[in-house]
Design brief:
With 187 residues, the chain is α+β, with helices and mostly antiparallel strands. It folds into two domains: 81 residues, ACT domain (Alpha-Beta Plaits), CATH 3.30.70.260; 74 residues, Alpha-Beta Plaits. Strand 2 and strand 3 form a beta hairpin. 19% of the residues are buried.
């Protein structure tokens, strides 16, 4: 339990006049790395398991892994501690699932890619380009009345650039979903 979550618990006790507060009931985003067989229908079975159990997938990315015939899924779900344990157990029961790792338990690196189509004219194009450069993004398409911007980073970075670009008029957004790997070596 982090110091931050202890303070949240104390605030909840005072604010809601509770005798005690169960921190495990707080929902938060959890990132799971799931190694699965690279076969048709696997994604459907996993998504179906979430749906049947009433769990929502916040983000889902799937791609080939370092091992032939296996894919790595990065699943982000909003759940409390008991629910995430239930999700892990249910995933482990599926025959196509090789391994499930809760990345919240260990240090990990995560990234997401976003494409943002934003209104741009001759007057504000330079300001938009400066914002994009500040976020280490790039302009990948230029039209007479808009730009398409590509930015890679964690969710906080992507949220920040979207907020800054809103004043120009965002026309469309497309996100890849989070991908993640544990830090350090796999010996």
């Amino acid at each position: 339990m982090t110091l931050h979550s202890i303070y949240l618990g104390q605030i909840a006790i005072i604010f809601f006049d509770l005798k005690e507060f169960d921190m495990t009931s707080l929902k938060k985003q959890h990132t799971l790395s799931v190694l699965v067989q690279n076969e048709s229908g696997v994604l459907t079975r996993i998504a179906g398991m979430f749906s049947r159990r009433g769990f929502n997938i916040e983000s889902l990315s799937v791609g080939a892994s370092e091992k032939p015939n296996l894919s790595r899924m990065t699943i982000v779900a909003l759940a409390d501690q008991d629910e995430i344990e239930q999700i892990k157990k249910q995933l482990d029961k599926l025959i196509d699932v090789i391994s499930v790792e809760n990345l919240d338990d260990i240090p990990f690196v995560d990234r997401e890619l976003i494409l943002i189509q934003v209104k741009a004219d001759a007057i504000n194009r330079l300001e938009i380009s400066q914002i994009v450069e500040l976020f280490r993004g790039r302009v990948v398409d230029v039209a007479s009345n808009n730009l398409i911007i590509e930015v890679t980073g964690d969710q906080g970075k992507l949220k920040a650039i979207v907020e800054l670009l809103k004043k120009f008029g965002i026309q469309a957004i497309c996100r890849t979903g989070q991908i993640a790997l544990p830090r350090g070596s796999k010996d």
